[in-house]
Amino acid sequence: TTPPPPPPPPVRAVQPPDTREADIAIEREKKRLEQEKKAREQQLEREKRERERKEDERRDRLEQEKKERLQKEREKEREREKEKEQREKQLAEQKKAEQDKQKKLAEDRRKADEAAKRKSEAETKQLAEQREANLRRMQGMAGATGGENATGSAQRSAGPSGSYGDRITAKVRPNIVFPDAIDGNPLTDVEVRASPDGTIVGIRIVKSSGNKAWDEAVVRALQKTDTLPRDVDGRIHPSLVIGFKPKN
Predict the structure, then answer these.
(1) 207 phi, psi to nearest 5 deg
(2) Phi, psi (5° rounding) for residue 132?
(3) Staple 199 to which of 75, 162, 195, 213, CB 3.0 to 4.6 Å?
């Protein structure tokens, strides 16, 4: 007979694997990931708040700069307005001062013209009186007897001789320096005062020719002449009015 087969080997029970360490590792990894996620979220939140803070600061700074810029512009505008008002005030004051100045100048000219007119009238009157007096003296001289025993006042106070003016002119004219051309033949009447020896001690224009250069040339010539000639009777007349023309 065939022997019976050997019995099968005993079946060993399969033990389930130990997953505790894996679970612990998984749990740890899960916590780590959660912590990292939380840390990232916190970091992102901090960064967000920082960005918002910086943005707020930027807006505040821009707003402050805008306010300061507007304030400066307003101050500049006020300063410009103030300067404009000052310029307008200054111009108004200058205009008024100029008007007052012109008014005063006009008044001064009017007074000067009136004074010059009065002076001219007085000089003309004085010249006429001087000529009249000279004429009377000459007439008195012509009417005197001229004798050795003559005692009349006409002889003693007689005026210059008829040729005395020509004698003076002849002495003065060479000293007149006047190269300028002149229209017409204007007359300058000059009062000449002399000391007893004939020295000229005073020169005064009593009537201008209207040409200042000619008047001054006559005065310079008299100053250069220095002394007057004696009249035909040997006398020196203390005061005379003599006329000078450029074209005698």
Answers:
(1) -150, 115
(2) -65, -40
(3) 195
Residue 147 CB contacts under 8 Å (≥ 6 apart), including other chains: none
| Strand, coil or helix: 38 | helix
Q: Is 8 in a helix, a strand, or coil? A: coil
Dmax over CA atoms of the chain, in Å, equals 236
DSSP of 127-145, one letter per residue?
Answer: HHHHHHHHHHHHHHHHHS-
The mean-pLDDT minimum among 37-41, 130-134, 164-168, 221-225 falls in: 130-134
Query: For 33-61, how does the pLDDT look when each residue is reduced to its tens digit (9 = 90+)?
Result: 999 999 999 999 999 999 999 999 999 99
Question: Helices (DSSP H) in 144-211: which residue ranges?
Answer: 153-156, 164-172
Strand partners, 96: none
Determine the Cα–Cα distance for residues 228 and 165; give it in Å rounded to an integer: 11
Name the H helices within the chain.
Answer: 20-143, 153-156, 164-172, 212-225
What are the residues facing 203 on neighbouring strands? 192
Q: DSSP character for 14? A: P
- With 0-12 / 13-18 / 19 or more C-beta atoms within 10 angstroms meaning exposed / middle / buried, residue 136 is middle
**Host domain of residue 233:** 160-244
The domain spanning residue 219 has which CATH number?
A: 3.30.1150.10
Indicate whether 151 pLDDT > 50.
no
* Close Cβ partners of 158 (under 8 Å, ≥ 6 residues apart): 137, 138, 140, 141, 144
- Residue at a domain's end among 115, 147, 179: 115
